[in-house]
């Protein structure tokens, strides 16, 4: 039986209204500080994502510029520790598609965050084939990212040997929300961190 709370009215107006309601509910689940349980989230978030993927599918041929920015992972279907969402940890993804650059950055939340983190740098490219949702990822270097001293930032990075092709399908995208599906089948939901500067973090 379908979930009546996800039912939509007939016609484009009803679909648009349902997409907006679905998006707002999903963002509510993803916002930091939610008092709802992990069990509730595991049940509700995937249903909302699947509905929004049908109602509001991303098209990177028209939306590639919206990829750019700092995104914070707020939910994933993975059980891996480094993909778990914790209030004391920021799991950030920095995307600069115009220059083909990206970085995954794991750091402490709060004022200590800028002092140190673990980062993995990558080259990215938006695939030209329909449905215009795939972003190829080639990891290049990873390691410790330290504080900025003057114009330079302390870092200790090593080359990464990527033995398999990696990619993300960006299935939902707007100014605040991004949903992606990885090549290993993991589902990710991220929110934009407009308070963080992409250029400064990638420098």
| Overall body shape | globular
Radius of gyration: 18 Å
The averaged pLDDT comes out at: 86
Give the SSE string.
HHHEEEEEEEEEH
CATH first level of the largest domain = Mainly Beta
Query: Fraction of residues in helices?
Result: 25-40%
CATH fold naming of the largest domain: Lipocalin
**Major sheet summary line:** 8 strands, antiparallel, barrel
Number of domains: 2
| Named CATH architecture of the largest domain | Beta Barrel
Total beta strand runs: 9
Strand content: 35-45%
**Distance between the ends:** 51 Å
Structural class: alpha+beta
Number of helices, counting only DSSP H or I runs of 4 residues or more: 4
Runs with pLDDT <50, length 5+? 7-12
Please explain how this structure is put together.
Helices cover 25% and strands 38% of the residues. It is of the alpha+beta class and 203 residues long. Strand 4 and strand 5 form a beta hairpin. It is globular. It has an 8-stranded antiparallel beta barrel. Helix 1 runs antiparallel to helix 2. The relative contact order is 0.17. The chain has 2 domains: 56 residues; 146 residues, Beta Barrel (Lipocalin), CATH 2.40.128. It has 4 helices and 9 strands, in the order αααβββββββββα.
Overview in brief:
By secondary structure, this protein is an alpha+beta fold.
Features:
203 residues, single chain, alpha+beta, 8-stranded antiparallel beta barrel, Lipocalin, 25% helix, 4 helices
């Amino acid at each position: 039986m379908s979930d009546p709370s996800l039912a939509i009215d007939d016609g484009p107006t009803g679909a648009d209204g349902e997409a907006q309601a679905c998006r707002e509910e999903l963002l509510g689940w993803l916002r930091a500080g939610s008092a709802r349980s992990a069990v509730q989230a595991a049940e509700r978030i995937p249903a909302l994502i699947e509905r929004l993927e049908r109602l509001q599918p991303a098209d990177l041929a028209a939306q590639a510029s919206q990829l750019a920015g700092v995104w914070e992972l707020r939910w994933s279907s993975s059980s891996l520790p480094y993909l778990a969402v914790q209030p004391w940890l920021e799991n950030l993804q920095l995307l600069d598609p115009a220059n083909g650059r990206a970085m995954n950055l794991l750091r402490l939340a709060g004022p200590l965050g800028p002092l140190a983190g673990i980062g993995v740098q990558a080259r990215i490219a938006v695939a030209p084939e329909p449905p215009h949702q795939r972003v190829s990822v080639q990891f290049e270097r990873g390691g410790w990212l330290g504080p900025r001293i003057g114009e330079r930032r302390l870092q200790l990075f090593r080359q990464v040997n990527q033995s398999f092709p990696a990619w993300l399908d960006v299935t939902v995208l707007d100014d605040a929300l991004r949903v992606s599906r990885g090549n290993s089948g993991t589902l990710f939901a991220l929110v934009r961190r407009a308070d963080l500067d992409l250029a400064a973090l990638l420098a």
